[in-house]
Amino acid sequence: MPVTVVDINCDMGEAFGQWRLSETDDASLMELISSANIAAGFHAGDPNLMDATVRLATQHGVGIGVHPGYRDLQGFGRRKINGTSDEIINDIVYQIGALREFARRHGANLQHVKPHGALYMELAADEALSRSFIKLMRTVAPNAFVFCMGMSQTYRTAIEAGHPVIREFYADRDYDRSGSIVFTRHVGKLDPAAIADKVVRACLEGKVRTVDGVDIDIDFESICFHSDTPGCLEIAGNMRSALVANGIRIAPVSEVSAQQAYAIRGSK
Fold it and tell me: Which of 4, 12, 63, 170 has its CA 20 to 30 A from that of 115?
């Protein structure tokens, strides 16, 4: 079934003090997205930046999400940090709480939780850790969406638990045959037009080409791109324009989720 309404999410606030990773300021990107995944101090971010990014999101009507990662500023959260399940879950609790209070300060709610980098990939593969994570979500943020890949343990566990969940399509990452993104720490310059074509095809045909040249089916409710990808502003602009030109509306995840549920009911 073609996607007619979709969320666009992007990782935001990924800096620390005077250090900046992205070549593009978050304010420019906020105009092109509907959901922001905001770093909460472990892989990037600090209290002043979290406050500023939440304020920007509320000003632009963008859904606020926390982007918890491993405590790894030097490696930008893209290295696995070994720890017990309790240690990892407690780090997530800490980051959810911090970002949620900044959202509350600005009169906003926490829309979603999207783990970052190596933590995202670990949760996708580790059933026990995913169960601990979703159990945590049911307790501390039962109404907040979890963002994850459709093929992940995270998604399967959320569905089993009846927790709100959003599947992502990665605009600026490659896929393997399993439907997982190919994890990378460094992304080079990409072709914005090619990315726009890839995204539109995924929406209209439900297909994506893998790294070894095979087409696979892909289902999703949100499109992700990264603010640290070189040329991210041009990528976002091209992608959004191509979606709109093909009759695909950009909307917050709450509306996307409601429309998907209606479509599923109507097809039965």
Answer: 4
178 sits in the region (left: phi over 0; alpha: psi -120 to 50; else beta) called: alpha
159 phi, psi to nearest 5 deg: -60, -45
User: Above 50 in pLDDT, residue 259?
Assistant: yes
pLDDT score for 263: 42
Which of 65, 94, 68 minimizes the C-alpha distance to 81?
A: 68
CA–CA separation, 188 and 183 (whole Å): 13
Contact yes or no for 171/225 (Cβ under 8 A): yes
Helix (H, G, I), strand (E, B) or coil at 48: helix
Cα separation values, 60 from 21, 134, 173, 223, 252, Å: 22, 29, 26, 18, 12
- For residue 52, the one-letter residue type is A
Place of tokens 């304010």: 27
Whole-structure pTM value: 0.92
Longest dimension (CA), the chain: 54
- List the structure tokens of 92: 């997530």
Please compute the mean of the pLDDT values over residues 248-266 and round it to a whole number: 67
Element (H, E) at 20: strand 19-20
Domains in the chain and their CATH numbers? 5-266 (3.20.20.370)
- Over pLDDT 90: what percentage of the chain? 79
* Cα dist from 188 to 75, 213, 229, whole Å: 17, 20, 7
Task: Tell me the average pLDDT across 217-237.
Answer: 94
